[in-house]
Amino acid sequence: MVSLKSLLGKGVITSDGVYVGEVIDVDVSEDWRVVKLVVKLKRDAAKSLGSRMALRPRGAIDVSKVKGLGDYVTLSVSFSELKEAAELL
User: Fold this and answer.
1) DSSP code of residue 79
2) Residue 87 or residue 37, greater confidence
3) Fewer CB within 10 Å, N or C, the chain?
4) Residue 28, strand partner residues
């Protein structure tokens, strides 16, 4: 089991090793399950999701796209597939 405190601030990388940002929040369902990670996006990641120059670009990534959790949150998608796996907030 992972605590919210240990998850917040972790870096997020794609399956091909591209750093996309860091976890700043989570979305929780009505039955108290984490369903999405809210990520403060780096400029390149925000651009790939179609963001215009936002001051604080954020994206939500479904937890089904998380491959592993260690020093970083590793996604099961590559950087080029990020647009299908995340949404801008």
Assistant:
1) G
2) 37
3) N
4) 34
- For residue 71, name the pLDDT band (cuts at 50, 70, 90): very high
Q: Which two tokens stand for residue 31?
A: 């039955």
Measured CA distances, 78 to 6, 32, 44, 56, 74 (Å): 24, 29, 14, 23, 10
Task: Report yes or no on whether pTM surpasses 0.90.
Answer: no
SS3 1: coil
Q: How far is CA 13 from CA 17, 29, 31, 41, 64, in A?
A: 6, 24, 28, 11, 15
Q: Kindly state the average pLDDT of the residues 62-76.
A: 94
Contacts of 86 (CB under 8 A, 6+ apart): 39, 49, 59, 60, 61, 62, 65
